[in-house]
Amino acid sequence: MATATKTTSKKKDESVNGFDRFFEITKRGSTWLTEVRGGVVIFMTMVYIVILNPIILASQSATDVDGNNLNFLAIGSATALTAGIMSLLFGLIARLPFALAAGLGINNFLAVTVVGQVSWPEAMGLVVIDGVIIVILAVTGLRTMIFNAVPAALKTAITVGIGLFIAFIGLVDGGLIRRNGDDANTPVPVNWGVGADHLLSVPTLCFIIGVVVIAILMALRVRAAILIGLVIATIVAIVLEATLHIGPKFSDAGFNPFGWDTTVPGLPTSIVATPDFSSVGQVDLFGAFGRIGALAGIMLVFTLVFSNFFDAMGTMTGLSKQAGLADKKGHFPRLRAALIVEGAGAVAGGLTSTSSNTVYIESASGIAGGAKTGLASAVTGVLFLIAMFFTPLTSIVPIEVGASALVIVGGLMMAQVVDIDWKDWSIAFPAFAAIIVMPFSYSIANGIGVGFILWVILRAVAGKAKEIHWLLWVVAAGFLLYFILPYIQQAIAA
After folding, report:
1. CA distance 469 to 150
2. C-alpha distances out from residue 109 to 188, 288, 336, 372, Å
3. What gap in Å lies between CA 77 and CA 99, rounded to an integer?
4. pLDDT tens, 37-96?
5. Is residue 94 within 8 Å of 65, Cβ to Cβ?
């Protein structure tokens, strides 16, 4: 019997081709079709960054200290180029279903804070330095050590917090939840619908249709539920726009609260467009230190490294657990390779003037459809590279439709909250704090930082100090410095 079993196993292994073995498709319980479909879904939920990143980095409000602005079309082309290359490399090297693109937290930080002090080439030089530091930490194994030092309960809390965070992002991007104005005379910072009457716009209606359709299909156990839902909601959006002529939210005619946020759905008048790569290589590596001084430059780099480091760590933790690739301690395959390639994304983003590229939580949309291997992220990468030449087609899927998938994925990730020991207050409260701070502060790094600090304090006073890894003390102290950094910068400026 033993011989027969061995022979059968050998035949089974031989039936798997080299492509399958490379990506471990069968080994992880997936199929190539599932992976390709997952890559397409990830692309559909991420493609908005090709439009949104230029809006953030190349807007008139993002004028640098020398009075210069980035070129909108060039940033769009470079955003697709960098996302394509880094997602493809991640799929081939780390072999995990995580796609990369310009990180929304860091690009906002650059546009709002950094370029008020330095030029755009100098700001991108700081991003490159940030990436080099992260790569060094990953290569030396220190980044892996920090990852492994995080307790399983905190890793679970990070996953759940990210689930709430991306669901909140989905609700905001979908237009269902909106910010109250400063003149609202209410302590509630957010509200439902549009305006004082809390009406729902047509874009938000498309978002709701997407959520409901995907939820129904998932209840019926349709494997392609998210992709089918996104396609249906996109078709509805195109038809409604063609019928009602809603138009954009922001235009020369003024602000339309009922308009589409970044992309007006519709059939494009043209299909092919020539990419503009003029922003690639526009980097001044050390110019910022000469302009604002070494100490201020180091502070900016410190902020970039901390935000990049822990946002990515938290995102990969949540994605790997959702994909069923993480063990009980939260470790997942090819961890070190994943951390190195992700760090290289910051270097690539700086060199192309698109801001640090990092793992996208939207990858969870493809994972929810069954993606488990790097083939999915490789497919996403190829689609981004193709998108460079077909930028008019990227305007078909509005961000409101893509947001519907995020709410669904957030619901899926919430399921892991049962793995936390809620009866032990020294575990429960740090986990709770990490979970709620992420969506409420709109930052994964903030949630992780609060969780780390509370963990070492409460576990120590509960008599569990010996169980706390020494790296957690160091990281908690680093986060404490990270949180008080704005006050230090103000003191230096004064």
Report:
1. 8
2. 25, 15, 27, 32
3. 17
4. 999 999 988 887 887 788 778 866 688 888 898 988 889 899 999 999 999 999 999 999
5. no
Residue carrying structure tokens 């809603």: 246
d(CA 66, CA 148): 44
pLDDT of residue 253: 79
Amino acid at site 358: T
- Which stretches of 271-362 are DSSP H helices? 287-292, 294-322, 335-351
- Number of compact structural domains in the chain: 1
Distance CA 474, CA 469 (A): 9
Burial 89-119 (b: 16+ CB within 10 A, else e): bbbbebbbbbbbbbbbbbbebbbeebbebbb
Extended strands (E) in 367-449: none
Residue 394 has what pLDDT?
A: 63
Token duo for residue 158:
């990070």
Question: Is 2 among the domain residues?
Answer: no
Q: Does residue 274 fall inside a structural domain? A: yes
pLDDT above 70 covers what percent of the chain? 91
The answer to whether the pTM exceeds 0.90 is no
Query: Is residue 382 included in any domain, yes or no?
Result: yes
Neighbours of 66 (CB within 10 A): 12
Query: How far apart, in whole angstroms, are the C-alpha atoms of residue 445 and residue 216?
Result: 33
Q: Quote the domain boundaries for residue 397.
A: 22-493
Question: Which residue type, as a one-letter code, is found at position 272?
Answer: V
- Does residue 325 fall inside a structural domain? yes
Cβ 428 vs Cβ 420: under 8 Å: yes
- Over 90: is that where the pLDDT of 315 sits? no
